[in-house]
Design goal:
alpha/beta; TIM Barrel; two-stranded antiparallel sheet; 17% strand
Length: 287
């Protein structure tokens, strides 16, 4: 088994892609010490595909995976049901053999039947993509830890889509109430991709106490119940060394640093903070 590699999830850099362009953004990622990237929420225009391919060659950067949904979630969006050949061609162009579904479609969250329908369709496309040498993976949030008849939704998806792999996001697993290390153990052999992001309980903002003084308990309680934040690695409460070690034991090929919201910080600075934590904790060899 080849060594796992630490990289970056491009979603947190989508504004940088717009501002600097794909090539210069990946150049900066490379300068920060990361040498693999998962492409997500970046328009796959011919210009971007060409720039990503050139950057991957010039900076010896692996494209860990690409992203696509089963159906368009908004008008004109590319998806496996509408742009299958193009998505396969884009993966081939940048040398990616993994494609991942980033989220359970909103309408599939309505009922168990709709989730099962989604899982069956995902399994169908996993079979089609396998014929093209591409593996299909599914990325979780917290909603997958809803229970139906005692079973977690994530486990139901695994049962109903046996050809699907999983990209476990440790922050969202924690937010769903499970121990990320336990879930990584349960999904051993099915998890080539892991999202590394910390889980932070923020301090209550001053505005909450201003509201409290005015007798606005509703605003205060809203702040009280929304203190969970996405954090740079080492800035939260997760057992990251344990998570990284279990990810490797479970067969992960890529551990991708991500932070959905940077709360005003420059995302490159956030990636630097996470990199420094990983270096200091003995993981520089995985970059």
């Amino acid at each position: 088994m080849s060594q796992a590699k630490i990289g970056v999830q491009a979603m947190m850099l989508k504004e940088k892609f717009e501002e600097l362009g794909a090539y210069e953004t990946l150049k900066k990622v490379n300068e920060l010490g990361y040498h693999s990237i998962e492409v997500s929420q970046i328009p796959m225009t011919p210009e971007n595909v060409k720039a990503i391919k050139k950057a991957s060659v010039d900076f010896d950067m692996e494209i860990a995976s690409m992203s696509a949904g089963l159906k368009p979630q908004r008008e004109g969006q590319e998806s496996l049901s509408t742009h299958f050949d193009k998505i396969v061609a884009d993966c081939n162009a940048v040398g990616a053999d993994i494609l991942r579904i980033g989220m359970l479609p909103f309408d599939a969250m309505a009922s168990l039947d709709k989730v099962i329908e989604f899982a069956h369709e995902a399994n169908h496309y996993a079979e089609k993509l396998a014929e093209q040498g591409i593996k299909l993976y599914y990325h979780n949030h917290h909603i997958e830890f809803t229970k139906y008849d005692g079973k977690f939704l994530l486990d139901i998806i695994r049962e109903e889509a046996p050809l699907l792999g999983f990209e476990l996001d440790v922050h969202w697993v924690q937010r769903g109430g499970r121990d990320p290390i336990d879930v990584l153990k349960e999904y051993e052999g099915k998890v080539d991709l892991v999202h590394l992001k910390d889980y932070r309980i923020a301090q209550l903002p001053d505005e909450a106490f201003v509201a409290l003084e005015k007798g606005d308990n509703e605003t205060f309680m809203l702040a009280f119940t929304n203190v969970v934040q996405f954090a740079e690695l080492g800035e939260g409460t997760l057992d990251l060394p344990g998570i990284i070690e279990q990810s490797i034991k479970s067969g992960a090929r890529y551990l991708l640093v991500e932070q959905d919201d940077q709360y005003g910080r420059d995302p490159f600075d956030c990636l630097e903070t996470s990199r420094d934590y990983l270096y200091e904790n003995g993981y520089k060899h995985l970059f």
